[in-house]
Please model this.
Amino acid sequence: MNRRAGRSPSRADRPRQAPRRPRAESHLRILHRVAETVSRTLDVEDVLRTAVEALTHVTGHEIASLHLLSGDGRTLELRGERGMSARLREVNRALPVGEGLIGRVAAAGRTLQLARTFEDSRLYTPARAVVREERILGFVCVPIRCRGRVLGTLSLGRKTRHRFDVHEVALVEAAADQIGIALDDARLYSETRRQLEELRRAQEHLLRAERLSAVGELASGVAHEINNPLTTILGQTHLLLTHPEVTPHVRERLGIVADEATRAARIVQSLLLFARRSTPERRPCALADQVWRVLELKSYELRQDSVRVVTEFAPCPAVLTDDGQFRQVLLNLVQNAHQAMLRGAGERLLGVRVWSAGGKAYVEMRDTGPGIPDENLPKIFDPFFTTRPPGEGSGLGLSVSYGIVTDLGGRLRAGNHPEGGAVFVIELPLEDTVA
Ligand code: ADP
Model:
């Protein structure tokens, strides 16, 4: 068989042929277009499209394809093409590295050039029939590299008898180099974006912590001052309530005073807890047990309001928590979910999940209430933020919970479920991962 196939000479030992001027100019124009796109945009798709389009103008009648390596490095994925028939496109969509012509170029990292491609025995088996039928003759495939690593391949095919000459191969190689630079720029850009995003999140966290501690100091002072007179009011009211001379009418009024004073005392207790920055008393505890206890505590009220509770407890190793404080967090979340669902007309379902993964334990609470409006999401952990009517909400439940979970070395996150309702997730380090 008269096959004029083989590797193209390397860039260094290729014969120095003087290019014919018109073609050299058009090649320069193509390269200029690719380079210009690379410097203009960080959009990889834009670069790939421009490069493939520009290269199909090498001599006309050409087929161009661009493959990039998949994440696991085993497959070449078709990311751009021009001039391919539907069948050719289909067989080229995903190519195994190391097999066929393109797969071999990616594995060896060397340019491959052929003159009678459709006859080549190394053709990728699923592509053989279509390459033969379409009588693809000339073929050149070059690796796209960056920092010594192969990232993909750039290939040109041609149905005319002219094999790709040395200048054309040089052009495809130069274009592949440009694409390699573009891919690296895009990777650096997305890495920088990710780092910036992390920095922004850390800064937000710090701001919130600072705000919490400032409010905490103020709150603890005020709470201490209010606590004493409140205790006196409550004590005196209860004494009066037991007095035999109190008329039913006055007793009823005193009852209201006692109820309101108790409510005020609860708020003051929350404030004190919120302000207290003492180290919690940590003991190993089973999260599922704590969740059960809180759900049981609330079960009567939930049943009364037709709230169905669905639990899903996966095996979860112990976490170090302060039981009392942790139950308070759970109670706040259950109470918030309960109140949120009372506002809606649909089914009332409280889903509670416990699981562990990657050295962390998780408790998720999902309700079928109205969810949290996007504009409120960044504010709900702020002290005194509440959307409840005056006199009903203190706006302290979530900020207290946030402080407790953070002190335990964990995280408390809030969001909305795509199907509606709010989702709260507590994340805590497992006992054996705590230093
Ligand atoms: P409070 O319950 O006293 O308002 P929180 O700190 O517990 O204080 O909650 C702050 C706000 O967060 C609530 O007023 C409400 O707007 C929102 N919120 C909390 N939980 C939910 C939930 N499950 N669904 C919808 N909104 C919620």
